[in-house]
Amino acid sequence: MIGVGRPLAAAAIAVLALAGCATQGPDTPPAAAAPPPVAALPASIPARDLVGRWGYASYHKEADRPRTEAAARGQCGQPYVIGAGPSGGVLMHLADEAQQQELQLKGGPGGKNYVGPSGAPAGDPKDREIVSFDGRVLVLRWVDPEVAGRYGTGIYVRCAARA
Q: What confidence tens digit (pLDDT) does each residue in 80-100 have?
């Protein structure tokens, strides 16, 4: 039994020696760094185009969109105000937030546009996708399916200027 201990000890020393070779030493070049983050794409819609007074309504079924747009138009007596943010974004609410905060317009793959928190990539779960915008009607859909299920697709209809 005494002879068995020496080969096991020698094997353990060999394993430790080989493990030491696998670590980086001072002369070993560093491992490949992660690729740099992809630069954010600019939105094709400038933030200033969203600033203003809007009638708002939402729907869950696409068939309800025409009726919902008419309902949004009727909300201009109590408009939702999208303000200009101090850093070039827009002041709007995020889901389940009582206070407006500055959100940025972000460009995404395939020419899509999003509105959401700064620093997060386009299409982040807190973002809303700009489904369509013609200067008069803005349609926004929440990216997060759970939030979209609660709030639906929002339609904002620009209110006439105050007289």
A: 999 999 999 999 999 999 999
State which residues form the domain around 137. 47-158
β pairing state of 52-59 and 101-107? unpaired
The amino acid occupying position 55 is: G
Domain membership flag for residue 29 = no
Q: Dump the DSSP string for 103-137.
A: EEEEE-GGG-EEEE-TTSPTT-TT-EEEEEE-SSE
Q: Quick check: is 32 in a domain?
A: no
Region of 130 on the Ramachandran plot (φ > 0 left; ψ -120 to 50 alpha; else beta)? beta
The string over 103-114, giving b where at least 16 C-beta atoms fall within 10 Å of a residue's C-beta and e elsewhere, is bbbbbbeeebbb
Q: Is 111 left (phi over 0), alpha (psi -120 to 50) or beta?
A: left
> pLDDT of 112-139, one tens digit each?
999 999 999 999 999 999 999 999 999 9
Are the beta carbons of 90 and 84 closer than 8 angstroms?
Answer: yes
Task: Please choose, from the candidates 50, 57, 97, 102, the residue with its C-alpha nearest in 3D space to the C-alpha of residue 75.
Answer: 57
Whether the pTM exceeds 0.70: the reply is yes
If one counts the domains in the chain, the total is 1
